[in-house]
Amino acid sequence: MNLSASLPLLVLALAIEAAFGYPSRFYAAIGHPVTWIGRWIGMLDRVLNREAASFATRKAMGALALALLLAVIIALSALAQRLCLSFGLLGLIPLALLASTLIAQRSLHEHVASVAEGLEREGLDGGRRAVAMIVGRNPQTLDEAGVARAAIESLAENFSDGIVAPAFWLGAGGLPGIAAYKAINTADSMIGHRTPRHLAFGWAAARLDDLVNLPASRLTALLLVASAALDRTADARNAWRAVRHDAGKHRSPNAGWPEAAMAGALGRRLAGPRVYGETRVEDHWMGDGRAEANATDIRRALRLYRRSCGLLWGLAALLAATAIL
């Protein structure tokens, strides 16, 4: 699929997902493409990740598992794309519907907004319950500011790998591009951890996920800086300053870019030391503002997020028009 087709597909898919999301009745009836991918990854993990094998063997088996996963995902998505496009331009509609299931604009907004609502309606306990649905850290260690920061950090990071990165790979490679990206990202979230079981087996997934998220993380930061310039309650200059000063200090090669941009725009500090389960992770702060945050700050972040999603759609539409003409 060339850019003159994949970019209009991206514009349509973004619009469909923003308007409708992934209906809960579909999820209840058939699950979600990411859950299907997750089952395949779990099966490959059980079959190929032998604890008795050497570190090098488990590392090789992890790379093999990832290659097998991608081969299946790309083949199936390419077949679906070819079938849809056999109907000509009308085929872009079902193809966009398929692609929209792999973008998460609407669901991300709903999950983060629920944290603000939990804090506003039920106080700290409500905020902790809501934020536990979207972050891996121990919510019982978080005060109100910690809950709010966790929600904002999740919004910034997931804007990159849940919306901008899938959009980038959809525009670059059509349905196979976005499907392959989601397979890599899901593999990283399931097996790309530094645990005894997955340190070797998940190495390939973690490294490839870092690579495929690199362009989108930078683009996400730029979108947030641009959105801050259009919002009188945000600070675009401070957002850009935080990106330049702090993004490279994050323990992740990609997460620091959107988190630093969001922190600077809001005049807050994000990331920093955190507790996952019983493990305390020491990380650099993103931004040089106040560490205190509350539900109002979450809603400010959501406003920047919505504006950034609009800018992403506008950029995709401009590129699509240019490719067509």
TrEMBL record:
It is a multi-pass membrane protein. One of its GO terms (molecular function) is threonine-phosphate decarboxylase activity. Pathway: Cofactor biosynthesis; adenosylcobalamin biosynthesis. InterPro entries: Cobalamin_biosynth_CobD/CbiB. The chain crosses the membrane at residues 60-79, 85-104, 304-324. One of its GO terms (cellular component) is plasma membrane. One of its GO terms (biological process) is cobalamin biosynthetic process. It is found in: Cell membrane. Keywords: Cell membrane, Cobalamin biosynthesis, Membrane, Transmembrane, Transmembrane helix. NCBIfam families: cobal_cbiB. Belongs to the CobD/CbiB family. Converts cobyric acid to cobinamide by the addition of aminopropanol on the F carboxylic group. This is Cobalamin biosynthesis protein CobD. It comes from Bosea spartocytisi.
